[in-house]
Amino acid sequence: MTVKKITDRISWVGAIDWDRRLFDELIPLPDGTTYNSYLVKGNEETALIDTVDPTKKETLFNNLMNAGVEKLDYVVVNHGEQDHSGTLPSLLEKYPECRIVTNSKAEDILTEHLELDEARFKIIGDKDQIDLGGTTLEFGLIPWVHWPDTQYTLAIEEKTLFTCDFLGHHYATEQLFNNDKCHYENSAKRYFAEIMMPFKSRARKNLQKIKEIEHDVDVIAPSHGPLHNQPEQIIGYYEKWTSDKLENKVIIPYVSMHGSTEIMVQHLTNALTERDIEVKPMHITNTDIGDIAKELVDTATIIIGSPTVLGGAHPKALYIAYLANALKAKANYASIIGSYGWGSKIVDQIADTVSSLNLELIEPKIIKGKPTKKDLKLIEEMAEKIKEKHKNDPKIN
């Protein structure tokens, strides 16, 4: 692993986790991730911005050794989750003079989860500063960009902004900066869906704080993924993703046991396409849940397709409904299609599961057995209703 120079006084000293494929035992990581840690030097003092996941402790310590760090004055904790802070106990033991700089919310989390000595903390508030000697660190509180404790740190003279999880993405690469716009947008959008979307109103509010200092920033350095040397790009994406605007798009997460539901999905897909609506059928069994989450960021309508299992919805279809509810999907409309053998409570189950979303339910189409021509006609009527809803909704582009 190597130390990577960002500016004359700032270096990346983190770790790349090429092989990690799951986060929180829930979130798939098809591209791995990085744990970004940054060394900031002043004329008199030195600070580390965040640490790394405990599994990569030795990588961080080797990088600090290679960077010639014999004394560390501060470690700034922008967020207390352990993939950024879990190495703190070992770091404080290695550098006994080092103090933890963070806010009071993060202090509570760190003392409770890592049993750290309160005497090691220096608590900061909004716009507080620390002068390292020609390098000034300024802090800003941006709570609830997925945890209540998040803050940013701005290295004023170096025009570099450290935003921790905010504006990041899970993507393992040796490249310091983003240089693949297409892949980068997809990766960042997926990360937003999984991490930030449940808190999008808070994210929108905190994004305004970032925009207030955007003109003073050349580089945004998050704690996961490559850095942004065109800050306006990632800020623009977040403005769109945190807004109420939706795309003229339908996603159809579905599962089919014996083919009847799949026939309905295919017919609905064709009917929507004929009406110039973007549509994405997504077979739940074969699709990464992160990809489904990504589509929930801007899709206007969610149609869940499910057969009936023991009188209820297929468990995998129910899980997607739970996921959409938990992530607070932005969609304005929803419906359900599926088939049954002798009876079904699919609609009640799925509708209850997404009850906290502000969705208008378009009349579901649940049929008995294999769909007939008459049933498929009803599917076409559903497509026509969706077209009219989208056409008259001012939030849909």
UniProtKB/TrEMBL annotation:
Pfam families recorded: ODP (PF19583)
Domain Flavodoxin-like positions: 250-387
Xref: PROSITE patterns: FLAVODOXIN_LIKE
Q: What is this protein called?
A: Flavorubredoxin
Q: Name one GO molecular function term.
A: oxidoreductase activity
